[in-house]
Amino acid sequence: MVRSRCVEKVNTGLVAAAAVLWTTAALAEPLPHRRGALQVDGSLDDWRGPALTATWSHPREPAPGANTATARVVWDPSYLWVAFEVDDAEVRTLRVTKGNVDIMHLVSLGDELAPGAHTVELVTEGGGLLHYQVVGSYYLPWSHPTVLAERSAQDMVGFSLKYDRTELATNDMVTADVKVWNNGAGVAPFIVADMGIPPGFAVVAEDLENLKQRGVISRYSVKPRQAILYIQNLDKEGLKFTYRLVALYPVKATAPRSIVYDYYRPDAKTEAPPVDMIITG
């Protein structure tokens, strides 16, 4: 369930008087007085203590009472403070069973939310323990001036990543071609290459082990969505290497970001542009 909240502040006057009369008549209670100002930021965390409240629902909703709104009113010598808390309809219901408990269920709220502060409410029925995460994100085009400025300021380490193909079938291999070089003075003693692994792929571990045995990288570690490679003594000439990834199952996804940075200067980093990958059955 998605709950959107907003806080409005209005000057005392006819509008304020009308609101006071309406709310007081609805609850037959005196209007509470507040000492100190409230923050008009969309959050009701600072609405502590007594407040006059009234709750109502739209009579023409498909299920009257399902979507409700609550008004809270207090006053101080300068202002009448009114906060509205509005419940939207249930966005989605998920049924978690023993057969799908190990699958990540994704619920997008992009079409449900409007600008402003919101509260996301999760309601569960039944037994068991569920883990959840609420994530907000936004995207800027790779050519956006902000992105270009950040890249220009951070490109102390040169980095390029190319895949020999972006469309393949299950169990096929794709080769990642990597170039890394030092744009700074002298030699960079310790460089970290954080290579994103696209969804639906797995890195061929023997390729990374071969790079280590040949001295191209000093060591490496592999996680579900990234392969972290450690490079020592990187100069301006840099180095080139490749590794392979195997396609596991059909999917269309964007490869997670890959970045290379100086271990001793994490702000000196370079990021490869995103790449769309398609695996067919």
Give a structural overview.
By secondary structure, the protein is mainly beta. The chain folds into two domains: 138 residues, no CATH class; 136 residues, Alpha-macroglobulin, receptor-binding domain (Immunoglobulin-like), CATH 2.60.40. 12% of the residues lie in helices and 40% in strands. The chain is built from three helices and 17 strands. The strands form four sheets. It has a five-stranded antiparallel sheet, with helices on one face. Strand 11 and strand 12 form a beta hairpin. It is extended. The protein starts with a strand and ends with a strand.
Observed structural traits:
mainly beta; 40% strand; 5-stranded antiparallel beta sheet; extended; 281 residues; 2 domains; Immunoglobulin-like
Number of helices: 3
Compressed to H and E, one letter per element, the order equals EHEEEEHEEEEEHEEEEEEE
End-to-end Cα distance = 36 Å
Count of distinct structural domains: 2
Q: Tell me which oligomeric state these chains represent.
A: single chain
What is the typical, i.e. mean, pLDDT?
77
Strands side by side in the biggest sheet: 2-3-4-1-5
Shape category: extended
Q: What percentage of residues falls in helices of 4 or more residues?
A: 10-25%
DSSP strand count: 17
The main β sheet shows up as: 5 strands, antiparallel
Over the alpha carbons, how many angstroms does the gyration radius reach? 28 Å
Q: SS-based structural class?
A: mainly beta
Percent in strands: 35-45%
In terms of per-residue confidence, which ranges show pLDDT below 50 for 5 or more consecutive residues?
1-26
